Structure formats: structure tokens, C-alpha cells
Amino acid sequence: xKNKIKKRLSAFTPLPxxxxxxxxxxxxxxxxxxxxEDHVVLTMRSHKVRHHQGQMSFPGGMSSKTDVxxxxxxxxxxxxEI
Length: 82
Known about the structure:
This protein has helices at residues 2-10, 70-81, and strands at 25-27, 31-34, 37-40, 43-44, 56-57, 60-62. By secondary structure, it is an alpha+beta fold. Strand 2 and strand 3 (37-40) form a beta hairpin. The longest helix has 12 residues, at 70-81.
């Protein structure tokens, strides 16, 4: 599975943000191999947030002015959320 994902991602080219008024955001899709089985890690949104309370999601969120790129955004947000 790992090699298949690497191959597909190596051919991926992100599209530019079509709406300058939209905020840039990024997610991380963390994979975990436990006892020879592959899993995807999801987070459950808090019931204290304004939108999408209790929903399952990939860790991620809006980019910050301090983020160098969207990879850093995804990693920072995942670190905060997991």
C-alpha cells in the first residue's frame, strides 16, 4: 500500500487556489500500520467548536501567517489536534 500511495502522490500537482478570497488550508492523512494492517488516523471534532461538532475528520486546518507552506500547515495542525 505504501508504494502505491507514494507512486500516486509523486504524480500529483496541487491546483492553485481559484478564489483569492478563500483561506488556504491543508490536511494530513496519517497512515498507521499496526500488526500488519493499514489504518487511517482520524480525529473527532470537539462539541465546543462552532462548526461540525462531533464529526470525524482528517487533522488539518487553515494556514497561519507563520507557516512556510501547506505541508507545514498540515503538520502543525496535526500536531495540535492529535
